[in-house]
């Protein structure tokens, strides 16, 4: 999760998020090189008093400054499109979970089970135990098996919401009357935090998302206990 004074992204917990981080570094390096070149040209033009008559009208340099930006755009666009299609890919999910946004909490339905559903509310500050995070902890976590393809169907009951978990590289709008789909794979066990990312009313800041990735055996034990309590 994020920590105070953090400047970069959260540590990746899914293959897609790792790809996004690599693409960010790739694009940032290109931006840095372009900015350096432009700054050098500006400083050179301001400080020098010499004039090169071949630069005032030159077909060659016009070809260069037309072709070079096109090549740079291609170097950015191709990896971007690759990741875009990777994020839309849903390959034989092992588990499907329906996440429904409400004002102001989330409800989860494990559609592969007959009666496994629960609401997830934020834990009030006065009820937090030592080690829990303010505004991020929920009374019921969305528990998933690690290293398994998970499909999440996202919708809303009242207004627009957005189901987002940064470390998993997931962000999907929850629209009333519409069922949106996203998928991810957690590459390691852990607890991953997110929040509603669409302004949805007075308590928009108080509907956190907590995803807990556990080994398959622990997930089966958890699901059995939840079904017994239902």
TrEMBL record:
Stretches that traverse the bilayer: 27-51, 63-85
Co-factor requirement: Cu cation
Cofactor info, note text: Binds a copper A center.
Domain named Cytochrome oxidase subunit II copper A binding: residues: 92-225
Keywords in alphabetical order: Copper, Electron transport, Magnesium, Membrane, Metal-binding, Mitochondrion, Mitochondrion inner membrane, Respiratory chain, Translocase, Transmembrane, Transmembrane helix, Transport
GO cellular component: mitochondrial inner membrane
UniProt KW Chaperone keyword: no
MF terms (GO), sorted A to Z: copper ion binding; cytochrome-c oxidase activity; oxidoreductase activity
Subcellular location: Mitochondrion inner membrane
GO biological process: ATP synthesis coupled electron transport
Chain segments annotated as coiled-coil in the UniProt record: none
Recorded catalytic activity of this chain's protein: 4 Fe(II)-[cytochrome c] + O2 + 8 H(+)(in) = 4 Fe(III)-[cytochrome c] + 2 H2O + 4 H(+)(out)
Keyword Transport carried by entry: yes
Domain Cytochrome oxidase subunit II transmembrane region profile: 1-91
Topology of the protein relative to the lipid bilayer: Multi-pass membrane protein
Function: Component of the cytochrome c oxidase, the last enzyme in the mitochondrial electron transport chain which drives oxidative phosphorylation. The respiratory chain contains 3 multisubunit complexes succinate dehydrogenase (complex II, CII), ubiquinol-cytochrome c oxidoreductase (cytochrome b-c1 complex, complex III, CIII) and cytochrome c oxidase (complex IV, CIV), that cooperate to transfer electrons derived from NADH and succinate to molecular oxygen, creating an electrochemical gradient over the inner membrane that drives transmembrane transport and the ATP synthase.
Family from the record: Belongs to the cytochrome c oxidase subunit 2 family.
Protein name: Cytochrome c oxidase subunit 2
Source organism per UniProt: Hippocampus barbouri
